[in-house]
Amino acid sequence: MNVGRKLRACTSLPDRVIVLTTSRIFLFVGLITIASAPIAYWRLDNDIASARFLTDDERAQGIERLRANQTGTGSNEFKWEHVVEAFLDIKTWLFVALSVLDNLGAQVSSII
């Protein structure tokens, strides 16, 4: 039994209720999201250097992995070189193509 069926069974109410079962599922999942977002915002760490759950050795290992990948620990400075790099990167275009093609089927079926 998949998760969708279980969630629908948990939120099912008698037919005399006007709100549809699908709407109740969206409301239920939306309330979980709204309730958990502030907790995640305040409890999750921003980067490796400030992660409370890492030991000093694990923190150094994580920073070294970032250095080896040439990604860095983060910067708030906007650089146009990064925009140009993103436009020239083939992985960016593949991601865009897959995203568009994934949603294209839903659009075609709603038009027909």
Can you characterise this structure?
The structure is a single chain. The two termini are 31 Å apart. The chain is built from 5 helices and no strands. The model has no long low-confidence stretch (mean pLDDT 79). 0% of the residues are buried. With 112 residues, the chain is an all-alpha fold. Helices cover 69% and strands 0% of the residues. It folds into 3 domains: 1-44, no CATH class; 48-74, no CATH class; 78-112.
Spans where pLDDT lies below 50 across 5 or more residues: none
Q: Please tally the helical runs, counting DSSP H or I stretches of 4 or more residues.
A: 5
Integer average pLDDT: 79
N-to-C CA distance? 31 Å
Number of strands: 0
Largest sheet: none
β-strand percent reads under 5%
Q: What is the molecular shape?
A: flat
Q: By helix and strand content, what is the structural category?
A: mainly alpha
How many domains comprise the coordinates?
3
What is the radius of gyration? 22 Å
Helix content: 55-70%
